[in-house]
Write a structure and sequence with these properties.
alpha/beta, Rossmann fold, seven-stranded mixed sheet, two-stranded antiparallel sheet, globular, S-adenosylmethionine-dependent methyltransferase activity
């Protein structure tokens, strides 16, 4: 399970630069999102020492193209403009710390989830927890689908799985796969407190082994929804296994949601080539060409891709 770019830190700067101190942020050099030949568009973003100092309240400074009328306003840094004229200088929202704070005030977070989030914030690895807006989206997808049988690969302390379990019908079933026993104990405690423990089938161990075992037991084509937030280098294997467990199009196609597909922006930086970044980059490329699913890459949290099995 990987950390989200939207860290739950009291310091809003960590939303965008979780690995950097505030001082290092002010000296952050140019960040350029290179042209993607596959998608045929480019977004340019530059942050200099002087610009970061001048715009400290507003977050990173993005190229504004023809949006000069926004100069002098904090909102001037709220937009990224596609530099490819074929996109008509389309303004795309860029979530600044101030805007993200506003977004969170519009998340309907149940009290039990808030308590779990705050307890998790005191634990080592708390950045692995999904953000409240992500959890709300996952719960809504489950409700829209009318899903009754779900899978989560990578549970951590259970924030996202609890959000899903809370909206499942009483007859609903959620398989929760997690290899870390200590964090899983926190998750089970909150499942019990929320009154949804009877809906959750906790599987402690390697997720790939659990999924293979489910397939061997004949559970193929029996799950409506899956969420993956686990080992990045295993994404392709998880995806292939989950496709076998997701239903073919009968009433509605099975949906698989994959987290961290933007990986702190590293996937768009050609100078970053560590093994996890390469794995996610390759997975995204494979998914783009995979005709078995319809896809939508959503820039929420650290990026999520929603896949619907055709």
């Amino acid at each position: 399970m990987a950390s989200s770019v939207l860290y739950r830190s009291a310091n809003p700067w960590w939303i965008f630069f979780p690995r950097l101190s505030h001082r290092n942020l002010l000296t952050q050099c140019t960040v350029v999102l290179q042209r993607s030949e596959r998608l045929g568009h480019v977004f340019s973003a530059t942050t200099s020492t002087a610009a970061a100092a001048d715009h400290e309240r507003c977050g990173r400074r993005f190229r504004r193209g023809k949006s000069d009328n926004l100069k002098g306003s904090c909102c001037a840094d709220t937009f990224v403009v596609a530099s490819d004229e074929k996109y008509g200088d389309k303004q795309v929202i860029s979530v600044t710390p101030r805007l993200y704070d506003y977004l969170l005030t519009n998340v309907r977070e149940p009290e039990i989830l808030r308590e779990l989030r705050e307890e998790t914030a005191t634990m080592r690895g708390s950045q692995m927890q999904v953000s409240p807006d992500q959890a709300q989206l996952l719960a809504m997808l489950v409700q829209i689908l009318g899903a009754e049988r779900c899978i989560e690969v990578g549970v951590y302390t259970g924030y996202s799985s609890l959000a899903i379990a809370l909206v499942l019908p009483e007859s609903g079933h959620l398989v929760a796969c997690e290899k870390d026993a200590s964090s899983l104990e926190v998750a089970k405690r909150y499942y019990d407190r929320a009154g949804v423990l009877h809906k959750v089938d906790v599987k402690h161990g390697l997720a790939a082994d659990a999924l293979k075992s489910m397939i061997q037991r004949g559970e193929v084509d029996s799950y409506d929804f899956a969420f993956v937030d686990a080992e990045k280098r295993m994404y392709q294997e998880y995806f292939e296994l989950l496709l076998q467990l997701s239903p073919m199009q009968v009433r509605i196609g099975g949906v698989i949601v994959i987290d961290n597909i933007l990986w702190h922006g590293k996937v768009a930086d050609p100078q970053v080539n560590d093994s996890k970044t390469i794995s996610i980059r390759n997975f995204n490329r494979n998914l783009m060409g995979d005709k078995r699913v319809s896809i939508s890459m959503v820039p929420i949290g650290d990026g999520m891709t929603i896949c619907r099995k055709r």
